[in-house]
Amino acid sequence: MLGHLIYILLVAAVVLSVPSPTADADVRAVLVVIGLIGLWRYSWALIHLARSLWFRKVWFPPLRKRAEKALLAEGVGHAFMLLTSFRIDEPTTTKVYAGAFRAAARAGGGATIVASIVEPADEWLIGNLARAMYGDELPFTLEFVRIPGTGKRDALAHGFRAIARYQPGPQDTVSVIDGDSIVPDDLIERCAGFFLTDQRLGALTTDEVCTVEGAEIFRKWYSLRFVQRQILMCSNGLAKRVLTLTGRMSMFRAQLACDPTFIDHIQNDEVEHWRLGKIRMLTGDDKSSWFWLLSRGYHMYYVPDVVVETIEQPPSPSFIDSAHVLMTRWFGNMLRTNARALALGPTRIGLFTWWSVLDQRMSMWTSLSGLSLALLGSFFVSAWTLVYYVLWVMISRYIVVLSFFTTRPTVSVWYVPLLYFNQIFGSVIKILVFFRLDRQRWTRQNTTLKPSDTPLFDRFKRYSSVYVTVVAVAVYIAALAVVSGVGAPQRTMPVGVQSTIGGLI
Question: Under DSSP, is residue 21 helix (H, G, I), strand (E, B) or coil?
């Protein structure tokens, strides 16, 4: 708590050292626009927080009780577990499969583990681990599916087809688990009961915590991400439609996961873009499964009291480089899918879910509006505009960070600058990715799609992406200038700025 106290004293010192913004009407006008946009953004965040609290404190507990009663009355179905592993180190693989084995051994209806792998060494390691833990008579079925290293989508498709050959029943489940995710021992008994209480439930996902390798800043950054994830997942869980079925661990109704159209959609998903043409999806299999269920009207639950541990290995020792690589993949997956989700309409997927998907697109612009207006105001009105904006950021982001205590018992004061970093840097990455949706790369495997375009069309896509990005940003800045009045014809630069420019000339 010492860090929080120091931060509060720092904010108080800044407040006492700056003049009141009410003295300058022009500065006040810019700050009002910043405040109005901020009010809209934070009212939406407040709605998410309120819905998250209602979900965890009021809505979910009775659902948990109904699931437990249904499990006692009807019994748990067979539990299938599909794990994918490729180029993951031995200690991580050992932890992941040991966790899956323990969960499978506790499954009351029996369990089958399908390991979709590429390298023979993984099969040897996993097989020896199973025998070391349980001897030659395993309390579950262990099946290996070997594929060439053609990507996670192919690995999942082959695994689903292997499970389909078992002809799973209506109460059976398939847990899809990443090769860096450690599931709890009671995963099946804590999650399978929900499928008995809601016949329209297609899948569910759970809370996550992370063990991060690397510098302390990575630990803080990932921790912040999972705090925000918990709030947003709970909020959208209230609508029975989460916005992603995370690939780290999601549990599906087995008969849906074995549907041939579902498997084909996972393996060969693609989107059509007006400028970039047909885009085959390399990453984002979790978004593909989500959209398949969403478009068919299935519910997707969030289970906040089951926690999966993920082992995070940043792709680079550099924090900025890692954030760039990861955000490019995360936001690319999101933006490639949400256009078709929006096309389903609010009557089909629910107004709140539809608006949340729309906000994913709007937020990359609105989140930059405060900084953009502050820079415009500092250049054309008064340098104090930027100072007031920094103070606004320090206060408003700290209030947001304090709200995280509703989700986690401890909250770091370092979340404040990291929260702002995510907002600004993340928005820039979103905008760049939004106009380059055809660019995809897996982080750990460093795999990309083979180019299928002619050299001429490939150059057209590259150059047109730069062009539309520049035009969009220019229109955005112009709109902000007009709305705030900064772009008024009579506006002149502050004397200090004029003298500085004059000296340079």
Answer: helix
Distance CA 446, CA 435 (A): 22
Query: What's the token pair of residue 105?
Result: 């051994």
pLDDT digit string (tens) for 342-356? 999 999 999 999 999
Q: Report yes or no: 77 and 112 within 8 Å, Cβ to Cβ.
A: no
Under a CB-based contact definition with an 8 Å cutoff, are residues 247 and 178 in contact?
Answer: yes
Q: Domain locations in the chain?
A: 2-44+362-491, 59-344
Counting other chains too, the contacts that 284-288 makes at CB distance below 8 Å and 24 or more residues apart are 284/332, 284/333, 284/334, 284/336, 284/337, 285/152, 285/153, 285/156, 285/247, 286/244, 286/245, 286/246, 286/247, 286/250, 286/333, 287/244, 287/333, 287/334, 287/336, 287/337, 288/153, 288/337
How far apart, in whole angstroms, are the C-alpha atoms of residue 165 and residue 145?
13
Q: What is the pLDDT of residues 96-149, one digit of tens each?
A: 999 999 999 999 999 999 999 999 999 999 999 999 999 999 999 999 999 988
Q: What are phi and psi of 212, to 5 degrees?
A: -110, 130
59-344 topology per CATH: Spore Coat Polysaccharide Biosynthesis Protein SpsA; Chain A (3.90.550)
Q: What is residue 361's predicted lDDT score, i.e. its pLDDT?
A: 92
What pLDDT, on a 0 to 100 scale, did the predictor assign at position 447? 60
